[in-house]
Amino acid sequence: MTGIVLAAGQGKRMKSRFPKVVHKILDRPMVNWVISALRQAGSDRIVVVTGFEAAMVEAVLDKDIISVRQTPQLGTGHAVMTALDYLDDEDIVVIAGDEPLVLPSTLKKLVSRRIEGDFDVVFLTMKPADPTGYGRVVKDGKKIKIVEHRDADSETRMIDEVNSAIYAFKGSFLSSAIKSLSNNNDQNEYYLTDTISLADKADTIVVENAQEVLGVNDRIQLAEINKIAQKRINVEHMRNGVTIVDPDTCYIGPEVEIGADTVIEPMVFLSGKTRIGNCCSIGPLTRIDSSVIGDDVEILRSEVSNAEVHSGARVGPFSRLRPGAVVMNEAHVGNFVELKKTILGRGSKAQHLTYLGDTDVGEGVNIGAGTITCNYDGKRKHRTEIGDGAFIGSNTSLVAPVRIGKNSVTAAGSAITEDVPPDSLAFGRARQVVKEGKYSKNRGQEENS
């Protein structure tokens, strides 16, 4: 099955320099919601017709998606003409790139109906409470035509079934019909809807839930569809055994996976290909993107991006795990701690006010408050290695590249610039000097005397 996505328009009412279809629903560009539905419905070839700022649209597409450019943009029929080389499949679905809520099951139903009835085209319709502005579906036996609202007489406007612009075509019919289109109209454009009247045998399916075919024309509708997508995803997770304390304030992307008995607290943002295990506690006020979280993990008021947190670990509050951070089993990352390209070993702890960058931390290590790894020399990044069981004193600066051996201790306030052997105590600070009476509580009295 071939899916053709019409994504060439600008979407002027969005008031944006970006094409409408790259605006995001939750964390996914709108056009990719449509592509995902087509994939799940069985499309093994997807063609996206681009036009306005085509490069921006093409940049968000997966590598296996075919893109063709419609220049200039002369209507929906002309868009399909642009994809003429890909109409060699007998099962073709044509859909607009701004209908992100359509379900794969609906597309499957549409295609199955066309095949079973050997129709030239079957398209999705709806019956809104107010059909004003929509193209009316006029039926005469097996023949159907679509009459746009502006062209409809009073009797035709009484018809309540309207076009949703989602079609399942027989490829041989579409490739022939598309060549027969004319642009002899007020807009001088080629309309895909005109192919419907050319079909000898056509049919419609009225969508059960009109939300599926909602389009996006402005930022208000974008927000409305975001809300619908948010609710749809959250409900599905709750049905699968996830507790979401306040679904209205949790935003979960369509590719996120969450295990049973995990609790999602309010104001949580989960995006990308994030995987969260069973029996976790996430939030409140936590953001996780494209990360892997094990079982029985607690993450509180923290930021996690392209990182791993293994089972039994604790993160937060106010922690930041940057790309490449790995928190091993039973390890703890505490308040105002930042990890980047760092492995924090099993059972190790960095509880307070710490930066660990480009660091390998062994098992059972304690990182004192205020510790930092000085990993950048102005030109290159260097790694720090901390062996199992080491104790890093508060306010230690580890100047990379440097190794701290197993079970070694660094004294508080040290700047460690050389490797420390195992089972050693390292000092790297100036000797304390005290000069009594040199600083009076009343500096003015001292100066006068």
From TrEMBL:
<comment type="subunit">
    <text>Homotrimer.</text>
</comment>
<comment type="similarity">
    <text>In the C-terminal section; belongs to the transferase hexapeptide repeat family.</text>
</comment>
<comment type="pathway">
    <text>Nucleotide-sugar biosynthesis; UDP-N-acetyl-alpha-D-glucosamine biosynthesis; UDP-N-acetyl-alpha-D-glucosamine from N-acetyl-alpha-D-glucosamine 1-phosphate: step 1/1.</text>
</comment>
<dbReference type="Pfam" id="PF00132">
    <property type="entry name" value="Hexapep"/>
</dbReference>
<feature type="binding site">
    <location>
        <position position="135"/>
    </location>
    <ligand>
        <name>UDP-N-acetyl-alpha-D-glucosamine</name>
    </ligand>
</feature>
<dbReference type="InterPro" id="IPR050065">
    <property type="entry name" value="GlmU-like"/>
</dbReference>
<comment type="similarity">
    <text>In the N-terminal section; belongs to the N-acetylglucosamine-1-phosphate uridyltransferase family.</text>
</comment>
<feature type="region of interest" description="Pyrophosphorylase">
    <location>
        <begin position="1"/>
        <end position="219"/>
    </location>
</feature>
<dbReference type="GO" id="GO:0000902">
    <property type="term" value="P:cell morphogenesis"/>
</dbReference>
<keyword id="KW-0511">Multifunctional enzyme</keyword>
<dbReference type="GO" id="GO:0016020">
    <property type="term" value="C:membrane"/>
</dbReference>
<feature type="region of interest" description="Linker">
    <location>
        <begin position="220"/>
        <end position="240"/>
    </location>
</feature>
<feature type="binding site">
    <location>
        <begin position="6"/>
        <end position="9"/>
    </location>
    <ligand>
        <name>UDP-N-acetyl-alpha-D-glucosamine</name>
    </ligand>
</feature>
<keyword id="KW-0479">Metal-binding</keyword>
<feature type="binding site">
    <location>
        <position position="70"/>
    </location>
    <ligand>
        <name>UDP-N-acetyl-alpha-D-glucosamine</name>
    </ligand>
</feature>
<feature type="binding site">
    <location>
        <begin position="75"/>
        <end position="76"/>
    </location>
    <ligand>
        <name>UDP-N-acetyl-alpha-D-glucosamine</name>
    </ligand>
</feature>
<feature type="binding site">
    <location>
        <position position="412"/>
    </location>
    <ligand>
        <name>acetyl-CoA</name>
    </ligand>
</feature>
<dbReference type="GO" id="GO:0009252">
    <property type="term" value="P:peptidoglycan biosynthetic process"/>
</dbReference>
<feature type="binding site">
    <location>
        <position position="355"/>
    </location>
    <ligand>
        <name>UDP-N-acetyl-alpha-D-glucosamine</name>
    </ligand>
</feature>
<dbReference type="GO" id="GO:0005737">
    <property type="term" value="C:cytoplasm"/>
</dbReference>
<dbReference type="GO" id="GO:0019134">
    <property type="term" value="F:glucosamine-1-phosphate N-acetyltransferase activity"/>
</dbReference>
<feature type="binding site">
    <location>
        <position position="322"/>
    </location>
    <ligand>
        <name>UDP-N-acetyl-alpha-D-glucosamine</name>
    </ligand>
</feature>
<dbReference type="GO" id="GO:0009245">
    <property type="term" value="P:lipid A biosynthetic process"/>
</dbReference>
<feature type="binding site">
    <location>
        <position position="163"/>
    </location>
    <ligand>
        <name>UDP-N-acetyl-alpha-D-glucosamine</name>
    </ligand>
</feature>
<keyword id="KW-0808">Transferase</keyword>
<keyword id="KW-0961">Cell wall biogenesis/degradation</keyword>
<keyword id="KW-0012">Acyltransferase</keyword>
<dbReference type="GO" id="GO:0071555">
    <property type="term" value="P:cell wall organization"/>
</dbReference>
<feature type="binding site">
    <location>
        <position position="394"/>
    </location>
    <ligand>
        <name>acetyl-CoA</name>
    </ligand>
</feature>
<keyword id="KW-0133">Cell shape</keyword>
<feature type="binding site">
    <location>
        <position position="98"/>
    </location>
    <ligand>
        <name>Mg(2+)</name>
    </ligand>
</feature>
<dbReference type="InterPro" id="IPR038009">
    <property type="entry name" value="GlmU_C_LbH"/>
</dbReference>
<feature type="binding site">
    <location>
        <position position="217"/>
    </location>
    <ligand>
        <name>Mg(2+)</name>
    </ligand>
</feature>
<comment type="function">
    <text>Catalyzes the last two sequential reactions in the de novo biosynthetic pathway for UDP-N-acetylglucosamine (UDP-GlcNAc). The C-terminal domain catalyzes the transfer of acetyl group from acetyl coenzyme A to glucosamine-1-phosphate (GlcN-1-P) to produce N-acetylglucosamine-1-phosphate (GlcNAc-1-P), which is converted into UDP-GlcNAc by the transfer of uridine 5-monophosphate (from uridine 5-triphosphate), a reaction catalyzed by the N-terminal domain.</text>
</comment>
<dbReference type="GO" id="GO:0008360">
    <property type="term" value="P:regulation of cell shape"/>
</dbReference>
<protein>
    <recommendedName>
        <fullName>Bifunctional protein GlmU</fullName>
        <ecNumber>2.7.7.23</ecNumber>
        <ecNumber>2.3.1.157</ecNumber>
    </recommendedName>
</protein>
<feature type="binding site">
    <location>
        <position position="340"/>
    </location>
    <ligand>
        <name>UDP-N-acetyl-alpha-D-glucosamine</name>
    </ligand>
</feature>
<feature type="active site" description="Proton acceptor">
    <location>
        <position position="352"/>
    </location>
</feature>
<feature type="binding site">
    <location>
        <position position="217"/>
    </location>
    <ligand>
        <name>UDP-N-acetyl-alpha-D-glucosamine</name>
    </ligand>
</feature>
<feature type="binding site">
    <location>
        <position position="366"/>
    </location>
    <ligand>
        <name>UDP-N-acetyl-alpha-D-glucosamine</name>
    </ligand>
</feature>
<dbReference type="InterPro" id="IPR011004">
    <property type="entry name" value="Trimer_LpxA-like_sf"/>
</dbReference>
<feature type="domain" description="MobA-like NTP transferase">
    <location>
        <begin position="3"/>
        <end position="126"/>
    </location>
</feature>
